[in-house]
Amino acid sequence: MTLDQTTARVKISYIIEEEFRYRKGAKQGDGLSTTLFIIALHMTTQGIDKRGTIINKTSQICAYAET
After folding, report:
1. CA distances from residue 34 to 3, 18, 20, 45, 61 in whole angstroms, order as listed
2. Cβ–Cβ contacts within 10 Å for residue 36, how many?
3. Domain residues for 46?
């Protein structure tokens, strides 16, 4: 329902394309879009082996341990 009558335009190399309607997804800035992003990120990272991982502010260093 939040996307009812929603339109958008695409700009490519200073050329603005024709307006089109879309009905899927969530608007940027919508509270639901943040929640859906967090859920998708959580599901994506569940399969990653985090053992031996050191996270720094600027980089991630992975040390793989033999099991």
Report:
1. 16, 28, 24, 17, 27
2. 13
3. 7-58
Which residues does residue 15 pair with via DSSP β-bridges, in sequence order? 12
Residue 67's pLDDT is 47
The residue-averaged pLDDT of 38-63 equals 68
Residue 65 lies in a domain: no
On whether the CB atoms of residues 62 and 51 are closer than 8 A, the answer is no
In a domain, 64, yes or no: no
pLDDT of residue 15: 92
Q: Is residue 63 part of a domain?
A: no
pTM of this structure: 0.40
